[in-house]
Amino acid sequence: MKILGSEITPYKTYLNRRKFIKGSLASAMLATVTSSAFANHDSDLSIYTKNLNENDKLNSYEEITTYNNFYEFGTHKKHPHLNSGNFKPRPWTIKIDGLVKKPQTFDLEKILSNVTIEDRVYRLRCVEAWSMVIPWQGFQLSELIKMAEPLSSAKYVQFVTVFRPEEMPGQQKRTIIWPYREGLRMDEAMNPLTILATGLYGHEMPNQNGAPIRLVVPWKYGFKSIKSIVEIRFLDTQPETSWETLAPWEYGFYANVNPNVNHPRWSQGTERRIGEFKRRETLMFNGYEEEVAHLYKDLDLTKFY
Amino acid sequence: MFSTRNFNRSKPVLFILILFPSLLWAYQFVTGNLGVNPIEKLMDELGLMALRLIIITLMITTLSNIRTLKSIVVLRRMIGLFAFYYVCLHFSTYIVLDHFLDIQFIIQDIIKRPFITFGFISFLFLIPLASTSTNNMIKRLGFKLWKKIHYLIYPVAILASMHFYVLVRADKTEPVIYMGIIILLLIHRIFKRLTRPQLAQ
User: Is the ipTM of this complex over 0.95?
Assistant: First the structure.
């Protein structure tokens, strides 16, 4: 895998860097200080220089890997960390089908040898009103889409998580309809902010965070960022997604972070940043308004939440 | 046969056992050992404890129908008051730690979010129960009126379990178990009333 190897930035170094990053110009962008071995920092910088604003601070590796939702390993936020030990993320293939020139199955290694792994520091806002700042390594989904060669009739992309109840104990219970499914509109999928992540903090993606490859869509609630993807399907109609199927009055297809759209369980106006005592205001599109607001200019966001 | 004395003797031990979790969580909270999201964790633990204690008070009433366990009812008040204690801690965690006394926001939250509405009403109903839980109050109100007031424990239990049920996103097993127990205990009471109405007087 590309981000592995002798030149990878050790986890400890990353932690030490946190002090350095803070208060320096580089705080806006982890990319400038990471090893060039696995990140091409010459790609479009402007996309993510503004992604980490002055008020943000990275969450620790421990926070990110011990507290998250991944129902395949259980419904409690400590379960993914506790129950994902038996999961085998290698070997891995991703099936590409639907409206493409030629349906095919890619070896993950083959995909990785054709893309550029970059650092992306993103805020992650869970629909449960907590949030984190996470340094991912990954590549733009658009790169894979180009490899997949979708037909012009493809308007949506659907993603499917692996189904392995013997390795994922949460799947032995019908809490949600397995396998987990998510989807994006084509223009959302092609947006430069949308990545497929294969690592975090310079580590290979931990099992509990969606090994070996997961989606990260930073302006949407966390449940859109589907983990452990085995299938990507191109469609001309809006695909069904897991949470929307389960409770359509609570979770929409778009699921854009939006402090103005009320949710029956959690106020979306504020959030608790993990590691902070007081709540903070939730930002429109999780603070990525400039990059993505144009995608929705003709959409009533209170209706299409 | 367990006598009233047996149960009264167990009270100090029970008192410490039920109080202990709150002290432990407070200590863990202050020392930063309540996990990655300590406020959420604290609120969840306190709320769950309160719900379990409410269910235990209902169980005690049912158990006291068994001849040999008749005296167990002497434990009910203490456990009921502890339920109120945990509800108060749960509610103040929400007000102070979670929302930092943002009263306007909290009022909106109570009105807009059904699960918080359920929890809040349940809390309100517990106040008259807790404040009439003295021998003196039973005397002043008369047993009949006092008993009527204490029927509020049924809506309290139902609302509290609904508060939990609605909060859970997908795997509703645990709240369903609690609701099931509450419903069974209620059915038992209704059945008893219908078959032996003189005992209910």
Answer: no
